[in-house]
């Protein structure tokens, strides 16, 4: 067990380590994924991935026009 000044310093270090990071991963993910499939609601990074997604997952459907 630490006492006195060591204990206070250890508590400060632990508080700094356990502090929440600025921004969240969900916010970063939402910023990165701007396109989504209207059929299955999967989020994609760009229209090229949307076209690939349609050819592999929805072959009978036509991909939507690029309106992003």
TrEMBL record:
Entry's transmembrane regions: none
Composition-biased stretches (Basic and acidic residues): 1-19
Domain of life assignment: Eukaryota
Region (Disordered) residue spans: 1-27
Cellular compartments per GO CC: cytoplasm; nucleus
Localization annotation: Cytoplasm; Nucleus
Main location: cytoplasm
Residue ranges of every copy of the C2H2-type domain listed in the record: 35-63
Keywords, sorted A to Z: Cytoplasm, Metal-binding, Nucleus, Zinc, Zinc-finger
Any Pfam family the entry gives: zf-met
Annotated GO MF terms: zinc ion binding
Annotated PROSITE patterns: ZINC_FINGER_C2H2_1, ZINC_FINGER_C2H2_2
Name of the featured protein: C2H2-type domain-containing protein
Upper taxonomic lineage: Eukaryota, Viridiplantae, Streptophyta, Embryophyta, Tracheophyta
